[in-house]
Amino acid sequence: MTHPxxxxxxxxxxxxxxxxxxxxxxRVVMGSMHTGLEDHPWDIDKxxxxxxxxxxxxxxxxxxxxxxxxxxxxLKPFASExxxxxxxxxxxxxxxxxxxxxxxxxxxxxxxxxxxxxxxxQSASDKKSPITPFKPxxxxxxxxxxxxxxxxxxxxxxxxxxxxAVEIMGSEGYLINQFLAARTNDRDDQWGGSATRRMxxxxxxxxxxxxxxxxxxxxxxxxxxxxxxxxxQTWEETTELALHLQAAGVTVFNTGIGWHEARVPTIITQVPxxxxxSYTARLKQVVDVPVCAxxxxxxxxxxxxxLANGEADLVSMxxxxxxxxxxxxxxxxxxxxxxxxxxxxxxxxxxxxxANQRASCLVNPRACHETELVLMPTLxxxxxxxxxxxPAGLAAAVSAAERGFxxxxxxxxxxxxxxxxxxxAVPGKEDFADxxxxxxxxxxxxxVDVRRSTEATADDLAGFDQVIVSTGxxxxxxxxxxxxxxxxxxxxxxxSGAVVPGQRVAVIGAxxxxxDVSVFLTHTEEDLDEWMAHWGVGDPALTAGGLTEAKxxxxxxxxxLVQRKTTPIGIGLGKTSGWAHRAVLKxxxxxxxxxxxxxRIDDDGLHITVDGAPRVIEVDTVVVCxxxxxxxxxxxxxxxxxxxxxxxxVAAELDAKRAIKQGTxxxxxx
Length: 670
Ligand code: NAP
Ligand code: SF4
Hints:
Layout lengths: L12 E3 L6 E3 L3 E3 L13 H13 L4 E7 L17 H16 L4 E5 L12 E2 L13 E2 L2 H20 L4 E6 L4 H6 L14 H4 L1 H14 L5 E8 L8 H14 L3 E6 L19 H8 L6 E3 L6 H9 L5 E3 L2 H5 L3 H6 L17 H5 L28 E5 L3 H13 L2 E5 L8 H5 L8 H14 L3 E3 L6 H4 L4 E4 L3 E3 L12 E3 H6 L7 E5 L3 H11 L5 H7 L23 E5 L15 H10 L3 E3 L2 E7 L2 E6 L2 E5 L3 E4 L3 E3 L2 H5 L5 E2 L11 H13 L2
Parallel strand pairs: 3-4, 3-12, 4-5, 5-8, 6-7, 8-9, 9-10, 10-11, 11-12, 13-14, 13-16, 14-15, 16-27, 18-25, 19-20, 19-25, 20-21
Antiparallel strand pairs: 1-2, 17-26, 22-23, 23-24
Bound molecules: NADP nicotinamide-adenine-dinucleotide phosphate (NAP) and iron/sulfur cluster.
């Protein structure tokens, strides 16, 4: 039956034909996402539980993280690989769990090439990537031949393990791209030379895979639509490649945007939703097999719109399925307002993986911890009071209600969200509003007694069985002479709109919030075309890799961002997003000053000393972003046991990731 709200998204699709054809129950693909669980054989049960929960949540096709076809293709030392029967046998645990839950799953085969974080890495040439310290060795002609066959063997092993399909990773700058692009392939054997000869390697990978697995087993190929690096492929080359691959046996094209070394953000919050959909639509005009859209699609509405417009046949969402395992089930039940939306922050997923930690999710700390962080239904019906509705308190209240406790949430302001409400005012962080929509709706559905504009007292809390205090933080106002001057405002005043700064602004403190506030102060509205122009994204039909000269930004204000540390500004920001925030500061002509001592603030502006030389930054407004102090008055006044969480517990380097995790964990342990 056609779904009334998402008729295209929830419509089945059959991939391939013949006995191995795969019918998916809907068009939602959970895109490949390396979690770290793939790399350790002893984590196979955790991996199975992670996928099983998503299969139960209704997703059409799951694609695993990348598995190397050879040791030299590892992402890091001893990383995941699919190279022998033992591996295939072990994976039956994963495929069985997904099948029992009614789902379908594909194994991704990925050779890291020069992105391999180890000394054995190999590539089309010995050119080092700018994002890894290891110089690869150039593959011999025989090595390339051997590697193409190894890919095919991994594909065959995946089938043996019970996988319903495979995905060959041909995007994001990994080995296959390194063969395709002139940037990294300067070979003069049969695997290089002209653009067509550079295509020989991926085409052979698909051809040999097809030979080993027969006509019908679905082979997904993730094709790079836009390399976003100099010396990347042109659109003409991409379409020629797609046609060769289709002829060699590809069943479906998944799509990818940008190599990892590209200096254009492709998936983080500041990238407009659906930014890359038009490129998928362009590919769909070229090939006959189904095409899957990806990157910055995080709601069922947007996915439905892309399919309804005929821009793609499937939609891939990786991080949104990390954020909410029941994404599809909720869409199906017309409960999309209860979806815990991925806010594209990368803080607990990609940033973890790049730091060699297990992935999780900022808005869903259970992700990849399904067997460890369990919210069991309570056997003892207790009353729980949660005081403060910032991220920690919201997570605690919702988790407690999900466990079956009788929950009351006190919030002294009329709005829920605390510091998170301020964050969503930052340009490019508008998606954060979805997290508050999710929590607010869940509180409603679960019947939590939410008391807004209510400052809880010790007396109010006396009758509750459990009390959780999450009273949050307040902006720290440092002890600088003149801090009471009329020109001084806190970041909270500015982001909430209570204070509108003048044209010339000094920002004190260059942590995450100082950087965000500088972006807020300099930002001017931009549509998708302008966003692309500011990042130098052009038409790949005109320039290789789709890069062009970036259009300069016209900042709304003149901003100077100051810190006491002598390190470069913004180096402590997230690994996979910090570089983009730093780039925006530069594009917005924000003056950056490190190693400053604050002398005073007066009518002339902010007086500082740098390298022993005093100077004044002449400004109309000084915005203080100097961290936070815990708000603990209530907790200290309580004459009973209570759980202290979030910023009220530890203010230093508090972020929503820690707050939501702590709020969930404290309730799991009740
Ligand atoms: P923060 O990261 O601790 O930065 C505050 C900065 O203020 C410090 O780096 C410090 O730098 C300066 N400072 C501290 N005490 C000071 C004092 N007494 N006088 C003058 N300067 C002082 O805190 P935040 O920027 O408020 O951010 C809060 C949390 O939210 C952090 O955990 C942050 O990671 C998170 N957040 C993350 C993002 C993101 O994009 N991932 C964005 C926003 C916030 P100096 O000592 O060098 O001056
Ligand atoms: Fe999305 Fe952030 Fe969760 Fe990653 S950590 S899945 S980007 S919400």
